């Protein structure tokens, strides 16, 4: 939840990543926020954002151990 400030966005939005699945969503979904991972950050380089997203994924998988078993 937040603005994509790295890309110059100022409006807050919700971005959801569905892990380990390839699906198409054509309607409304319900999202449950389970744990705060980090604050909104601005990155100077896209590669830095990508590296942070990889770290976020590690943190998320540690919070939800059942996801780490899926590959």
Query: What radius of gyration results from the CA coordinates?
Result: 14 Å
Q: Could you list the spans in which at least 5 consecutive residues all have pLDDT below 50?
A: none
Structural class: mainly alpha
Number of helices: 2
Order of helices and strands: HH
Number of strands: 0
Structure description:
The protein is mainly alpha-helical and 71 residues long. It is built from two helices and no strands. It starts with 45 loop residues before the first helix and ends with a helix. The model has no long low-confidence stretch (mean pLDDT 83).
Which structural traits does this protein have?
mainly alpha; 71 residues; 0% strand; 31% helix
Overview in brief:
The chain is mainly α. It contains two helices and no strands.
């Amino acid at each position: 939840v937040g603005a994509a400030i790295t890309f110059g966005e100022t409006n807050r939005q919700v971005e959801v990543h569905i892990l380990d699945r390839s699906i198409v969503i054509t309607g409304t979904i319900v999202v449950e926020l389970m744990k705060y991972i980090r604050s909104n950050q601005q990155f100077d380089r896209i590669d830095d954002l990508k590296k942070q997203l990889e770290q976020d994924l590690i943190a998320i998988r540690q919070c939800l151990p059942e996801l780490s078993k899926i590959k």
